[in-house]
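To assess whether ligand presence alters the predicted conformation, the chain was also submitted together with uracil. Input:
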Amino acid sequence: MNDATEAFDAVDVIATKRDRGRLADEQIDWVIDAYTRGVVAEEQMAALAMAIYLNGMTGEEIARWTDAMIRSGERLDFSGLSRPTSDKHSTGGVGDKITLPLAPLVAACGVAVPQLSGRGLGHTGGTLDKLESIPGWRASLTNDEMMRQLEDVGAVICAAGSGLAPADKKLYALRDVTATVSCVPLIASSIMSKKIAEGTGSLVLDVKVGSGAFMKELDQARELAETMVRLGTEAGVRTVALLTNMATPLGLTAGNALEVRESVEVLQGGGPEDVVELTVALAREMVSAAGLEDVDPADALADGRAVDVWRRMIRAQGGDPDAPLPTAKETHQVLAPADGVLVELDALAVGVAAWRLGAGRARKEDPVQAAAGVEIHYKPGAVVRGGDPLLTLHTDTPERFGRAIEALEGAFTIAPEGSRPDLPPIVIERIA
Ligand code: URA
């Protein structure tokens, strides 16, 4: 039984969802608040999360759950800035370094970009881990420092403070250890509570689909995107989602310093075609969602304005944009076994290999290696010769090569010359 001073009993709330009932608004408000206060125990929230995982939530329940998580903490307010704000959230993928070129590019177009980011867990890398490979760069800013940098430079990529949606912080850690992460209502409310609390005026969601993503199937990804767009729009945030391909890694690198190097190449007008295409597509959405209809981000990339903002953004957070990036002590090449056409390079396998080389962490307190990762020499569709290097593995600890190579078994397929692989476009669908 619960404390008589509490409005509800956690056991009754769990039983409602276990029996496929609809949670009342007051039950949702109470359970999120009581969990944040430590009155609802971890094992009770674990049971409720599993009941939601199995039985789902209605649109109204998801909206109320999201709102209750927003109200568990502080809300930022960017209304004092002289420019409109826009933010991007990616559901995470292998080689997904897009935030790095995107934030300065969109800022160069006149939009303020408050990009509150996280560290990586598992096979997808975290934006902060990538930037921390730049000598001197620091992820933690106070709210005042963030506001000042948004006004002066236009773009900030920094750690989300602990004050935003603290209920989600607890719940996400719990879901991680109770097999309740991959559930549309819980993912949508988790992401959108943080983004709405952050106070951005508009938001562009990059919802990844494929082996390297949370959502392996298009239907699931579409449902997640539609749910998040609805939550954002109802909360007064102009929200658009792109469903994008994550069957194969994005660009030619997966790993922290390797991805920074590739991002700088994009900002300097080079870089892999898919990274440039997705960066510009997302930038166009952000600029348009912020209300600047006549600005084309492709111009700011071509004329060097975006790379100038990048340099100022890195310097403002103590980093040296001219310092050499760390390189790995050891490398190992994976060779093509035969002549032919590379028809598949699996994103998940490359992500797991990069992680095992030291680019990612298994537990949130683990350190990461700045220089570890995978460099990709050919993308699907390319003609290769037997013996050509397909991948270069980078690490400071060569005893990791064996497990990384194991992860890559069956990761690529080479078909006879003349084969035409079916390659999905990078942007699969737009949801608004
Ligand atoms: N990212 C989040 O912030 N929450 C989720 O539930 C999944 C991905």
